[in-house]
Write a structure and sequence with these properties.
The complex is a heterodimer of chains A (269) and B (221). Chain A has 269 residues and is α/β, with parallel strands linked by helices. In chain A, 33% of the residues lie in helices and 26% in strands. In chain A, the strands form 3 sheets. Chain A has a 6-stranded mixed β-sheet, sandwiched between helices. A 4-stranded antiparallel β-sheet of chain A has the order 2-1-4-5, with helices on one face. The longest helix of chain A has 18 residues, at 168-185. The longest helix of chain B has 35 residues, at 8-42. The model of chain B is unreliable at 215-221 (pLDDT under 50). The chains are: A alpha/beta (269), B mainly alpha (221).
Chain lengths: 269, 221
């Protein structure tokens, strides 16, 4: 369980990234922080592995104050996936995946065995083991990033816009695989994105943020789509523009259209 | 050519001496430059002054340095140590900027990733920052290498024998072939050093070549 207790973050120069933020992320759930860029969602994520220290307030993992933990040791115990994979360009795929276990003192052979196993888990061909990141496609890099995060089997996974840099088709594939993976592994995941559709797809719990990391609404995707808390949420999830409200087409009742008359799909008989 | 044939032994001996004198300044200059260049990179307020001072060092004429150093360090003017220390100073003068640029060239995302996965500060420096700065460091070291190999010849003016001896001796005795041999052999040594450094770079940083070829492939598209 991850708890944010009245957390604030001021940057030098007076910019307030996060203002009195409180949230509990239950163990084994995937919580998505959604908001437009600059709303403070990445700052919140980085507080969990002490890449950012809150100016005031506390972050706790399983009841323990993070300020009591050694930052380096803490980071090794948490999986971190970032945009474009965040791979080290001078290490091969297998060495990238083995990075965390090597840092934790696991032998090279054992780390590599585990890394090879993880390549299978995230759907990477074992031929890619000796390639360098720049020889991989965006989607493959992202899979390596996920494998690296899972290397030490951490309880917590932090995902910072992990699929932001890949094309829509690959993104959908990766999102579905993340769901499969999460169904099997049951990690406590904090997932940051600005893509509402991504949030609707992967979230157990959605937290919609506006500037200063102010929580505008929190709930399941169903809660949010059926009862947006205010105009900000309605507009942010696209409900205000009418493309979340669907009805049968007047021309063909099997076809579903949005309020603008744009075809969105068909109803299954 | 006849002169060369008659003096093969001398040329070989001077070439070896030249190589032996060139290696310590390249290695020591390179090593010393890493902390200095890193400081210049890490602390932007010092950057200007550090690079300024280091730049001025390079403008000191080598003969003046040969005279200035002995009283400072307490070794005789006519000694190999005098030449080596002077050349280390020139190496540092060239290399510090490359080191600073090398660290600045590292992608911030890679560094953040390294911190996020749990590299401690020292581990991150030696296992991530230094290797990623590597290609720029190597480029700097190649300049240092060529510069050092050519500057070693000046040592002959303080009695330290190298291929430079062929210049002064050839000049005094008006043997053109001897002077030309000195020039050619200095170039050959510089070339061999450069090829070795390139090979070392390829062996240690195979990934850096990939990055370049990919860049070129992208430009071509």
């Amino acid at each position: 369980m991850i708890e944010f207790r009245h957390v604030s973050k001021d940057y030098p120069g007076g910019a307030r990234a996060v203002s009195d933020f409180s949230l509990t992320v239950p163990t084994g759930t995937l919580t998505v922080l959604v908001g437009s860029s600059g709303c403070g969602k990445t700052t919140l994520l980085r507080m969990v592995n002490r890449m950012v220290e809150p100016t005031s307030g506390e972050v706790l993992i399983d009841g323990q104050h993070l300020s009591e933990r050694d930052p380096v040791e803490l980071r090794r115990s948490i999986g971190y996936v970032m945009q474009s994979g965040g791979l080290l360009p001078h290490k091969t795929v297998i060495d990238n995946i083995a990075t965390v276990s090597r840092l934790c003192g696991v032998s090279k052979t054992e780390s590599h065995d585990r890394a090879r196993e993880l390549m299978g888990v995230v759907g990477l061909d074992s031929d890619l083991a000796t390639r360098y990141p720049q020889q991989l496609s965006g989607g493959q890099q992202q899979r390596v990033g996920v494998a690296r995060a899972l290397a030490m089997d951490p309880n917590i996974l932090l995902m910072d816009e992990p699929f932001g840099a890949v094309d829509p088709v690959v993104r959908r594939e990766l999102q579905r695989e993340l769901l499969d993976l999460q169904a099997r592994l049951n990690k406590t995941v904090v997932f940051v994105t600005h893509d509402v559709d991504e949030a609707f797809l992967v979230a157990d719990e959605m937290v919609i943020l506006r500037e200063g990391a102010e929580i505008v609404q929190q709930g399941t995707a169903e809660d949010i789509i059926t009862a947006p808390a205010d105009n900000f949420v309605a507009s942010f999830i696209g409900a205000a523009q009418g493309n979340r409200v669907l009805h049968r087409s007047s021309k063909d009742p099997a076809v579903v259209v949005d309020s603008d008359g744009r075809i969105q799909g068909r109803l299954e008989a | 050519m006849q002169w060369v044939g008659n003096n093969l032994g001398l040329v070989a001996e001077l070439t070896l001496a030249h190589i032996a004198l060139s290696i310590p300044p390249i290695v020591l200059g390179g090593l010393l430059s890493i902390p200095i260049g890193w400081l210049a990179f890490r602390f932007p307020t010092w950057r200007g002054s550090v690079l300024g001072v280091v730049g001025v060092l390079y403008t000191i004429p080598s003969l003046a340095l040969f005279v200035l150093l002995p009283p400072l360090f307490g070794f005789p003017i006519l000694s190999e140590l005098n030449v080596i220390v002077a050349l280390v100073i020139y190496a540092v003068a060239i290399m510090v900027r490359s080191v600073s640029d090398g660290f600045a060239s590292i992608d911030a995302g890679s560094l953040r990733a390294a911190t996020a996965v749990g590299y401690g500060p020292w581990q991150r420096f030696f296992q991530v920052e230094l290797p990623l700065a590597g290609p720029v460091l190597l480029a700097g070291l190649r300049v240092v290498s060529v510069s050092t190999v050519s500057l070693v010849t000046v040592g002959v003016l303080v009695g330290v024998k190298s291929l430079g001896y062929l210049f002064t001796d050839g000049f005094q005795r008006r043997i053109e072939a001897e002077i030309v041999t000195g020039i050619v052999m200095t170039l050959v040594v510089a070339l061999i050093f450069d090829v070795l450094l390139l090979a070392l770079g390829r062996a240690l940083m195979p990934w850096s070549l990939l990055a370049k070829s990919r860049l070129r492939a992208n430009e071509a598209v």
